[in-house]
């Protein structure tokens, strides 16, 4: 039984498939890095809001005593 493509021609297609796969993985990693960066910024922002809220609560408690 003969292969669908001669082996000397199939190498180009295999290399092309690897390049496409690598490009897709690279795009995926870039998207995940962007999402992680956005989430990290949001977490820092929330932590700052909590810290300011706690500081404000402590100040109000000190004023009533």
| Helix content class | over 70%
Portion of residues in beta strands equals under 5%
Radius of gyration of CA atoms, rounded to a whole number: 28 Å
**Which sequence of SSEs, written as H and E, runs from N to C?**
H
Question: What global shape is seen?
Answer: rod-shaped
First and last CA, distance:
93 Å
The low-confidence runs, each spanning 5 or more residues with pLDDT under 50, are none
The main sheet comes to: none
The total of helices stands at: 1
Decide which structural class fits the backbone: mainly alpha
Average pLDDT, rounded to a whole number, is: 88
**Strand elements, count:** 0
Explain what you see.
It is a single chain. This protein has a domain of 41 residues. The model has no long low-confidence stretch (mean pLDDT 88). The chain has 65 residues and is mainly alpha-helical. The termini are far apart. The protein has one helix and no strands.
